[in-house]
Amino acid sequence: MIILRLGETKVGTLHDAEVVTYHNIDRGTEKAIHLSVRKVADGMEIGKWDYWLPKSQITYDQDKIEIPEWLWAERRGIPDLFRFRYPDDLIEDLK
Known about the structure:
Radius of gyration: 13 Å
Shape: elongated
Strand order of the largest sheet: 2-3-4-5
């Protein structure tokens, strides 16, 4: 299970620039939520990704979202052969 903290997470530095990741649920429908992920380095956006996730496959509250690994890999377009976890995205593995 992939667990992402919603809101702002400081992930370290990139060439002496502070890097922050933002995970936000910014809209939804009856059956899905829209997760927006942004990476910002010293105030400049360096990446933005948007994912629609089915509510039937995830759990979420105001602090975090839990996504099955297979669904996260599918949405991110990571083939099974190259699947791995990014430490800045992973808070903890709950069993």
